[in-house]
Amino acid sequence: MPTDYYEILGVSRDASADEIKKAYRRLARQLHPDVNPDPETQERFKEVSKAYEVLLDPKKREMYDLGGDPFGQNGGAGGFGQSFSFSDIMDAFFSSGGGPGAGRGPRSRVQRGQDALVRLELDLNLAVFGGTQDLEIDTAVVCGTCSGAGLPDGVDFQTCPTCQGQGEIQQVQRSFLGQVMTTRPCHQCRGFGTINPSPCVECAGEGRVRSRRTITIKVPAGVDSGTRIQLRGQGEVGPGGGPAGDLYVEVIVVKHPVFTREGQDLHCTVTLPMTAAALGTVIELETLDGTEQIEVEPGAQHGQAITLPARGVPRLRGSGRGDLVVHLEVQTPTKLDPRQEELLQELANLRDEERAPGAVAGAGGQSNLFSRLRGAFK
């Protein structure tokens, strides 16, 4: 009895090419030797591959339907692997099957655009408290002349004469395994299956053009250098006017003249005269939250830190804020007029510090009169 290829694939005699591909993928997933090494299953897989080759090729299918030998011009059927397409095997195991774009065939001219990355400089105040910032970007947008179609109104794409709309060209080569079918994108239509007879003069048939535009970015409170803000659908418009990719905005916080940031804390340095550090004082400090009155206790030391709670940076993915740490820098006078020197000498006499005996200091440095005076103010 002649072999019924339609029955082997489980399709009707008027089945379309897509139905034949789906049936083959379904059976190949079950019968491929890598999945099922049973000898009987391998024989079944050979029959399925042969049936797929015959029914998918219009000329071989027509010859088979007329009762002829579809392999007559190729020397008859062979052993395992003869005339099956490796790309179909890959499709059978890795394609989703049946959905748009599954398997082979012409590719769509409409594609998703690429994501884009831009950098945005922010001042520290905006990075801490958040807000909005305008950003000018240069990206691909939908062509206003053809609305993304790539060709003028009233003009349609033409079927490619080389691949007959398939978007690909199949070649059969003989090897020690038998006949191996390879598939390549059509060089004339670049795999689209159609040709643009009259490309849009504005976008040259791409369906998109480059344009500069301004967008407003919402900056969350607490961002830092390196933080990326994702804006969905604000990236590059795809070929054929396809959906836009995403835009990623990388934040760069500009150096502040007063404050530095360490994590969620802010730091600054305040310079005090030696006398103010010894006697105590009140400092007015302009912070990001406004003017703060900072009380310096008598006897403050060089390098001492005063912490203002919750005056730092908000936590980007949490609650609360860091602290503001004020570092004191005590200045020792370098030039004294006679009266100042007299008063300082009197203070040294009162504290029995007329002489600097040249005592060796610790690892921090040398001892001198003024450093001893600073220590005496404790």
Structure description:
The protein has 378 residues and is an alpha+beta fold. It folds into three domains: 5-94, Helix Hairpins; 109-146 and 206-255, Urease metallochaperone UreE, N-terminal domain (HSP40/DNAj peptide-binding domain, Sandwich), CATH 2.60.260; 260-376, HSP40/DNAj peptide-binding domain, CATH 2.60.260.20. The protein has nine helices and 16 strands. The strands form six sheets. Strands 11-12-16-15 form a four-stranded mixed sheet. A three-stranded mixed sheet has the order 1-6-5. A hairpin with a 2-residue loop joins strand 11 (260-262) and strand 12 (265-273). The longest helix has 18 residues, at 39-56. It is elongated. The termini are far apart. The model is unreliable at 73-88, 90-103 and 361-367 (pLDDT under 50).
Assign the CATH superfamily of the largest domain.
Answer: Urease metallochaperone UreE, N-terminal domain
Number of strand segments: 16
Number of helices: 9
N-to-C SSE string, H for helix and E for strand: HHHHEHEHEEEEEEEEEEHEEEEHH
pLDDT under 50 segments (min length 5)?
73-88, 90-103, 361-367
- The structural domain count equals 3
Inertia-based shape: elongated
What is the CATH topology assignment of the largest domain? Answer: HSP40/DNAj peptide-binding domain
The strand line-up of the biggest sheet is 11-12-16-15
Task: Kindly provide the radius of gyration, computed on alpha-carbon positions and rounded to a whole number of angstroms.
Answer: 40 Å
Overall pLDDT metric: 82
Share of β-strand residues: 25-35%
Largest sheet: 4 strands, mixed
Query: Architecture of the largest domain in CATH?
Result: Sandwich
